[in-house]
Amino acid sequence: MIYLNNAATSWPKPPEVYKTADKVLRGLSGGAGRGEGALDVGRVVFEARERIASFFGIRESEKLIFTCNATVGINMVLYGLLAPGDHVVLSSMEHNAVARLLYALKHRKGIEYTVVPCAPDGTLDPLEVERALTPSTKLICLVHASNVSGTIMPIEAVGEIASKHGIEFLVDAAQTAGEIPIDVEACHLTLMAITGHKALMGPPGVGALYIKNPEKITPLICGGTGSRSEELAQPDFVPDKFESGTLNTPGIAALAAGVKFIQKFIQEKEIRNVRQRVQTLTQRLIQGLLKYPEVIVYGPLDPDKRTPAVSINIQGISPGEAAAWLAEKYGIATRPGLHCAPLAHATLGTLSTGTLRLSPGYFNTEEEIDTALYAIGEMIGVLRRGQRL
Known about the structure:
Distance between the termini: 20 Å
Order of helices and strands: EHHEHEHEHEHEEEHEEHEEHEEHEH
Radius of gyration: 22 Å
Number of helices: 11
Structural class: alpha/beta
Strand order of the largest sheet: 2-8-7-6-5-3-4
Helix content: 25-40%
Number of domains: 2
């Protein structure tokens, strides 16, 4: 199989990730702070928290909260921060992890929000974000890169705007954590949600949430933390305030192993080899696709301005049919449809059709990209001859 669906979940994982999850499952017992084996488990979680926090420039590691995924982290922020009458600013490229939740909160809690329109290639003007602010704006919520077009958002510039106005700034880094360097202090982020199973090369079911000002957030879930068990009140210190229930220790340890794998290629806090390798594959893919007049490539064509999520449409065939043909004839795994991001597709003009997304990752090769391009060329040739696929 040629796997070109890394924007959904990266695959394969580094061998260290598999080995670490297995080692923790087999060798450690109990939960952090809970009985026999807890010291060893607690040490694993502590070391993972330290490594992942430092990876993002988080100075106080206890402000990195482990979650199931980025979606849970976003829910923790929006439910825990916003009150009736509060206003949120977001972009027209947001994932449903944000869009659906704000829609629900508008009806459940009276939250208001403004969607700032992006350009047809998904790019965002930071000044439009500033113009959308109102006296009631409590949060700016911005995806770091679109999972549809790959467009990278100007989080540094928007972070400066949020900081200037004293507004909380949440970045959904599901697509970029591990792919693009992020320093929460330099970008003025007060909140950041990440997931482990994409570019961080970890397993599914584990993520994290950075909370700069934990006193401003009410816990979404309360319960056992292994600390202050004699008190009925939820602990008010981090990370315990937000980590009720038994943590996914094997997943957390495996995520840390994925981060460690990436860190091997880092010099001066820049993800050089990982980012450059994927950019090279992305550029090769885009240049090959542009040779066919029947193909529309969405998002910026410059690989420096995008992630490897490359969405296309092919004249004369639906994304679903194209994906099925590529899988059946060549064993190429892609992702057709709306990618849980209807706002983004409306921005790109593809809401009625969806797109076919090809997303290379670190473990793909140039030969696999060439095979995918050959397969697409063969499909287009069949369509040109008026034949049925």
